[in-house]
Write a structure and sequence with these properties.
The chain has 8 helices and 4 strands, in the order βααβααβααβαα. The structure holds inosine-5'-diphosphate and magnesium ion.
Amino acid sequence: MERTLILVKPDAMQRGLAGEIIKRFEQRGLKIIGLKLLRISRELAEKHYAVHREKPFFESLVAYITAAPVVALALEGSDAVTAARATIGATKPSAAAAGSIRGDYGLEIGRNLVHGSDSAENGALEVANFFSEGELCADWARDVDPWVFE
Ligand code: IDP
Ligand code: MG
């Protein structure tokens, strides 16, 4: 089972889309093992987006992700990273497939509504950056699991 960190970004929070976005991952069958509302600090934003530190959009990205609270979700499932990124859609919302979150609700790259980890390794690291072990319900079994996971 893989883990992935999902963030409902500040623009989605301001637009009242948190429930709609969470619903899509839940309906897909991914298991919620962590869920909280938080205001991302500058320190956490710089750590989370460290790979983009040298990019020209880094400062605006940090300002964006710290501008309002976010909902952080830790999800678990088979191929969770790939499945979640398909549900999220392409980075540039104007080019994202209709039916994806970004393709249904977004237009611009700097307002793309949601984050999802890009590899299993980063999924595990990012979940650990946002959640302490005590905040996760890592071992609950759903009655439906045998009907979602083969
Ligand atoms: P991802 O969120 O689809 O994984 P990344 O390339 O990892 O995309 O970029 C992280 C975030 O940085 C994007 O989701 C977006 O919010 C922002 N971003 C990426 N490229 C640009 C850009 O060219 N201009 C402004 N913001 C950008
Ligand atoms: Mg990324």
